[in-house]
Q: What sequence folds into this?
């Protein structure tokens, strides 16, 4: 895997609008490194990762992996919360 696919920055924020302006409150910043195939397979086995076959009538949108955002760190071997 390329280094680009090995590193992910996860940011959790809350957005508020007030008086026509948008405000952001960043509550979590996490650096995830080292994608783990074992983590992906474990996530599938334990029901945290879903395989989505998106084949609509007349057009195939491909196969996707879906997971809840709080399960994302399970797919990486290194997790650094800042």
A:
């Amino acid at each position: 895997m390329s280094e680009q696919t090995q590193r992910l920055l996860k940011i959790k924020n809350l957005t508020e609008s007030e008086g026509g302006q948008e405000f952001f409150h960043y509550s979590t910043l996490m650096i995830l490194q080292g994608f783990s195939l074992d983590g992906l397979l474990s996530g599938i086995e334990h029901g945290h990762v879903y395989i989505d076959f998106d084949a609509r009538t007349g057009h195939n949108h491909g196969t996707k992996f879906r997971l809840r955002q709080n399960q994302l760190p399970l797919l990486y071997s290194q997790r650094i919360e800042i």
Observations:
- Residues 37-45 form the longest helix (9 residues).
- The chain has one domain: 3-81.
- Residues 3-81 form one domain.
